[in-house]
Description:
Number of domains of chain A: 2
CATH topology of the largest domain in chain A: Rossmann fold
Strand order of the largest sheet of chain A: 1-4-3-2-6-7
Oligomer: homodimer
Structural class of chain A: alpha/beta
Number of helices of chain A: 10
Distance between the termini of chain A: 43 Å
Largest sheet of chain A: 6 strands, parallel
Number of strands of chain A: 10
CATH class of the largest domain in chain A: Alpha Beta
CATH architecture of the largest domain in chain A: 3-Layer(aba) Sandwich
CATH superfamily of the largest domain in chain A: HUPs
Largest interface: A-B, 29 and 29 residues
Amino acid sequence: METFTTVSEMKAWASAERSLGKSLGFVPTMGYLHDGHLTLINAARRENDRVVTSIFVNPTQFGANEDLSTYPRDPVNDAAKCAKSGVDALFIPEAAEIYGPRHQTYVEPGRISETLCGRSRPGHFRGVATVVLKLFNIVNPANAYFGAKDYQQLQVIVSMVRDLNVPVRIVSCPTVREPDGLAMSSRNSYLTPDERRQAVCLYEALGKARELFDQGVTCGLTYVDVMRDRIKLEPDAEPDYVSLVDPDTLGDIEEVSDRCLAVMAVRIGKTRLIDNMLFER
Amino acid sequence: METFTTVSEMKAWASAERSLGKSLGFVPTMGYLHDGHLTLINAARRENDRVVTSIFVNPTQFGANEDLSTYPRDPVNDAAKCAKSGVDALFIPEAAEIYGPRHQTYVEPGRISETLCGRSRPGHFRGVATVVLKLFNIVNPANAYFGAKDYQQLQVIVSMVRDLNVPVRIVSCPTVREPDGLAMSSRNSYLTPDERRQAVCLYEALGKARELFDQGVTCGLTYVDVMRDRIKLEPDAEPDYVSLVDPDTLGDIEEVSDRCLAVMAVRIGKTRLIDNMLFER
Lengths: 281, 281
């Protein structure tokens, strides 16, 4: 596995591989890799001649009071996992390599970014869209892989690719879960053992929404109430948002028909976790 | 010359040419082509195997009270000029082909777009940056050509390419002028004969600034006063802005040293014209 820390090295390698006719699959990450990331890498492995993974804790997607400085990092282990998973090139730049001193251009994702996490984290998706477009331009992959756990992020990127004619195919991979249902996330490492037990409430709340959908319940507010009630059972759980939305626009659904997304952000102690589940008939 | 009206046709042609190892030069325009545009096409012709020109009057760069609906259009003559100038592919899409009903992602250019024309035309450079990035992604050229008359636009695009790692080389071509010095612009066609005579005041004001620079005058305000005085001589000329700025940041210069840009927007009757001149020692 090649490891690159500069844009010019990464571009040169990717360009040389493309010249040889090799298709590139790209998995952008913030590192501290778990089985969710490895699922993305495996999907990229199956569908492309070469796999590029990036590890970059992107400062522009963190708010002033968020966890940029404490975000978990383990580059040595991450590199070992990438090598073992068949990654061909690992791109692991410093922040100054990605954002020059005169950086001022951003990608603004619009409506899709204004609800849910975008409401609690102003500027977050602007930072995500900007860094993803930059990484796409550096790597120039045929396919890029994103986890469905970050559903709104995925939709922001799908919108960006459509609206800006970005020549990259976006592939969504299903959320990978712990045995008790908790969605895998690098931020799970923040949880104390007691918080970790309580954190299952997100998955269980989504499961209760699924039961309502299977029963044919049509009132969107009922779903939200039932999910909130499950979360409230945990002493250290505080919902940021709990919603039932249209999977394409992310607008609230009042009357459920044949397709909807239950989606939530919940603080467990100081740790903010997100999860979602798509229901379709 | 090939003519394409859809994104998919344009992409397919450009992609096929690149596969054959042909380098692409791209000249994005809003049509109503004049010798300034043809200079860009000629430069592209010299430096690339294939030349692509686009004609698209981009709605997102016009404000609500601006001249989108009256902007001069002459696609038949434009196509003839392109063919005669050796353009290989002309891309001339409708607005709905470029902006789908769900379009919501924009490129925000930052500081460089907030002064000068950006102050009088809020959102203008957001529209410019967005459509230029879209066209770059559709055509995927090696080189793209822009006129120095639209100096701030050029700087916005240079910043965007740098900040978003866009793999396109930006080439600036000198402003082409009428015999009396008026910078060529499609909007010159709006001028009545009397206004056309008055319009030379932009070029002459810039010439007076050049004299000050050649004399070693260091006070930025003196330049602005002298330029404004020349413009005031014309009864139908109304300055929008008249400035002496740093050519890189576009910030006002108080103390002139060895490099500065005189830049202005002036209304002649109802027609807003822009011009600039770079002074360097």
